[in-house]
Amino acid sequence: MNKKIEKFIYITVLVLIILGFALFSYFNFNYKTEFFCFVMQKSYSTRLVYLGLLFLSAGFAAGYCLCAYIKTAVTSLCDAYQKRHENISIEKDSDKAKISALEAKIATLEAALESALNNK
């Protein structure tokens, strides 16, 4: 897929999510909700918008962390592959150099044999 299309889709989805949250906040700003905290063993009351904002920001932070982790893993795999590819190409170059050196030796020996046979 084209990078420009991917970028456009990503930005469009992000704008739609933020717009949806803004509409949710506008229509539900006065509503309150209660939730029970298991750690403190208390019941708290807060506006629904603040709770939604907490979940939205936690989702964005978790998504960023997940993408950063995946990017580092893929980068390390790409670096390892590139290093392996370089080693293989160096070995091929080394083998080509050895073959050309042996061909040069064979050509020299053939020339020496021809000259020795011609001198008899």
Number of strands: 2
Order of helices and strands: HEEH
Biggest sheet features: 2 strands, antiparallel
How many angstroms does the end-to-end distance come to? 74 Å
Counting helices, strands and paired strands, the structural category is: mainly alpha
Strand order in the sheet with the most strands: 1-2
Runs with pLDDT <50, length 5+? none
Determine Rg (CA atoms, Å): 35 Å
Q: Which outline best applies?
A: rod-shaped
Q: How many distinct domains? A: 1
> What level of helicity do the residues show?
over 70%
The pLDDT mean sits at 86
How large is the count of helical segments?
A: 2
Tell me the fraction of residues in β-strands, as a range.
5-15%
